[in-house]
Amino acid sequence: MSETPLRLQIAVDCADPHPLARFWAEATGMRYEDHSEQVEAMVAAGYATYDDTVVIDGRRAWPDAACSDPTGALPRMVFQKVPEPKTAKVRWHLDLHVGAERRDAEVERLIGLGATRLWDGRQGPHTWVTLADPEGNEFCVA
Prior knowledge:
Helix content: 10-25%
Shape: elongated
Strand order of the largest sheet: 1-6-5-2
Strand content: 25-35%
Radius of gyration: 17 Å
């Protein structure tokens, strides 16, 4: 009997899952997942009701959102609505490695998507830029 291989999924607690999933889909080149067909099928089968869903861009969706890499190389990211606001610095974060030659352009692109520049970092010859996503979650671009 073979074991199921490990799959890594990143879960992010947030206030507004769908816009944050779209930000991270754009930031990473992943695709924002549209679950409208699944939602409609689950409601039609009686497994869920429309009260269990939200309307996003005129289509039914689950309250939580996700983005995934079509190639399967990157972990899926799930954005879960939580009632409490972010109150402190998260003890881990994502690093986006794009290379020194692309870093400045990538930082500007991410700021255009809604990120905020926090500070520039350096450790020996290694440099990076720390940003915050639209809900204040820190991440680095190196």
